[in-house]
């Protein structure tokens, strides 16, 4: 299979930690929801979710914050994750919303970040966001592309750009050329578009809690 979706490229600016916001801007632009600048989408996400997170927190730094924003914008949103700091094997592959919420409500809130994450997860699941708790596969990514859906991926950078810094980063999966995956990268120090082997991309995803955000317009 070969596919290369028409996803515009926006850059986050040097030393600007806004990759999540800019990734969302790219995906929404693909579907026709346009924000005139990075600042516009940053303000929109922060304002829309400020009742869930403390004012000093930036919801665009959280994969679940981005997912919740897209859901509240009227999109159909599916998240695949196996964040080992939140989920155990007992909840893997459980898709029932009530059981998921019951599990999430029992997650120990012994760290502040867990409380923030749990609040986002609850607010995502309740109105109809779909959460798949499992290890994402290459086949999952190919299926999203076959359905013409670009995907936001949370990755660890050292696996893709072969550097020693293992930074956490959001990129947009836009295609597959039959051999390598094609991603849009907002980082101003990286090329706009990169080709990444399936092994390297899966390693990069799994070393950043395995978050995959698939966003598409709801069926009318």
Overview of the structural elements:
- The chain is of the alpha+beta class.
- The protein has a single domain, classed as Cysteine proteinases (Cathepsin B, Chain A).
- The chain is built from 8 helices and 8 strands; from the N terminus they run βαααβααβαβαβββαβ.
- Strands 1, 2, 3, 4, 5, 6, 7 and 8 form an 8-stranded mixed β-sheet that branches.
- The protein is globular and about 40 Å long.
SSE layout and pairing:
Blueprint: E1 3-4, H1 19-30, H2 38-49, H3 63-72, E2 75-81, H4 97-104, H5 112-125, E3 130-133, H6 138-146, E4 151-156, H7 158-161, E5 168-176, E6 181-184, E7 193-196, H8 198-206, E8 212-217
Parallel strand pairs: 2-3
Antiparallel strand pairs: 1-5, 2-8, 4-5, 4-8, 5-6, 6-7
Helix pairs in contact: 1-2, 3-5, 4-5
Biggest beta sheet attributes: 8 strands, mixed
Using the 3D structure, state the CATH architecture.
Alpha-Beta Complex
Which structural class do the helices and strands define?
Answer: alpha+beta
Tell me the radius of gyration. Answer: 16 Å
Task: Tell me, rounded to a whole number, the average pLDDT.
Answer: 89
Q: Could you give the order of the helices and strands?
A: EHHHEHHEHEHEEEHE
Number of contiguous helices:
8
What is the CATH fold-level name?
Cathepsin B, Chain A
CATH top level class name = Alpha Beta
The fraction of residues in strands falls at 15-25%
Tell me the number of structural domains. Answer: 1
The CATH homologous superfamily name equals Cysteine proteinases
Provide the low-confidence segments as ranges. Answer: none
Q: Which range best describes the helical content: under 10%, 10-25%, 25-40%, 40-55%, 55-70% or over 70%?
A: 25-40%
Q: What is the number of beta strands?
A: 8
Distance between the termini: 28 Å
Tell me, what's the shape? Answer: globular
